Amino acid sequence: MTAFILVMLFLLSMISSIITREGLISCNASQTDSWKDEKLAAHALGSIDQTLYTNSLEALVFNYSQGIRLFEVDLLLTSDDVLVCRHSWFSDNDIPRLDLGDPVSIWANLTIHSSAWADNLKFKSDERHMLDKSLSFEAFYSLPRDYTSLSFSDLLAFMQIHQDIYIITDTKYLDDAVYMKQFSKIDQEIRHKSVDPAKIIPQVYSFEMYDRLTGLYDFEDYIFSLVKDNWSNQEILNRIKNINISAVALPHSRLDRELIDDLKNQDIGIYVYTVNLSSQAQELFDAGVTGIYTDTLLPADLLIQGAEQLALR
Question: At the N or C end, where does the chain have fewer CB atoms within 10 A?
Answer without folding.
Answer: C
